[in-house]
Amino acid sequence: MSRSVLITGGNRGIGHAAVRSFAHRGDSVAFTYRTGGIDPDLAFLGAMPVHCDITDPEQVESAFKEVEADQGPVEVLVANAGITRDKLLPFMSEEDFSTVLDTNLTAAYRLAKRAVRSMLRAKQGGRIILVSSAVALKGEAGQTNYAASKAGLIGFGRSLAREIGSRGITVNIVAPGLTDTAMAAALHEERVKEIVGDVPLGRIGNPEEIASAIAFLASEEASYITGAVLPVDGGIAMGH
Ligand code: NDP
């Protein structure tokens, strides 16, 4: 059955792979973008681009309205959009910290709250998938802001899972390791080598591998899974 799916940050990276995965499955997929052009491949797949800066409550509200008008109330929300602003703590400004928290955590609260409102009204259950990070579990020097935001998603998601489980809405968290996107490309080559050296599978992940986990958590096969943190990280954070 085709579902109404909304994915934030679908114009590139992991979100782009998730849009393709849901669209191939036959779902109605909308995705937010903030900057740059839209990949014609996504339009070809019938996915709907919605301009939205997720840090702006008004833009989030109008994005949901646009999606609802086009494909009905959101049944699957993938809160994927995120940023880094890596710095060692002594050099990290209040703005570096709060901008990352606003984008990665507060915006996820805003998106989930809006999605849950319409899911409860529709009484059809629903799926919420939050994209966290292996860094939330194991920590990373230079990423105190990012790790705090991504660990916050775990506590947020598990609490929400307890609030709305009785309504048939699942909330799960995917925790990717280093994945081959623009975010990883921003790291120095040496740092990438060091990280990969710690990955039991010995390589960086690709966006499709993260998208598969997201698609699984949204699928019928995952109907009894909620509040889970699913690492997709080649094993780097195991034991944390
Ligand atoms: P990219 O940098 O490739 O993409 C980030 C996406 O987030 C873009 O689509 C971007 O939109 C969007 N975005 C950022 N800020 C905003 C905002 N304020 N409003 C709307 N959209 C915004 O990153 P990835 O694909 O790698 O990352 C996707 C998710 O996966 C993130 O949450 C990231 O933290 C997480 N992750 C990534 C890992 C990696 O190694 N790549 C590892 C672990 C987790 P735009 O292009 O318009 O700016």
Specify the overall morphology: globular
CATH fold type: Rossmann fold
Number of strands: 7
- Architecture per CATH nomenclature, i.e. the level-2 architecture: 3-Layer(aba) Sandwich
Low-confidence stretches: none
What structural class should be given to the helix and strand makeup? alpha/beta
> What is the ordering of alpha helices and beta strands?
EHEHEHEHEHHEHHHE
Radius of gyration from the alpha-carbon trace, in angstroms: 17 Å
Strand order of the largest sheet: 3-2-1-4-5-6-7
Average residue pLDDT: 96
Q: Number of DSSP helices?
A: 9
Distance between the termini: 37 Å
Secondary structure: helix percent? 40-55%
Q: What is the count of distinct domains?
A: 1
What percent of residues are in strands? 15-25%
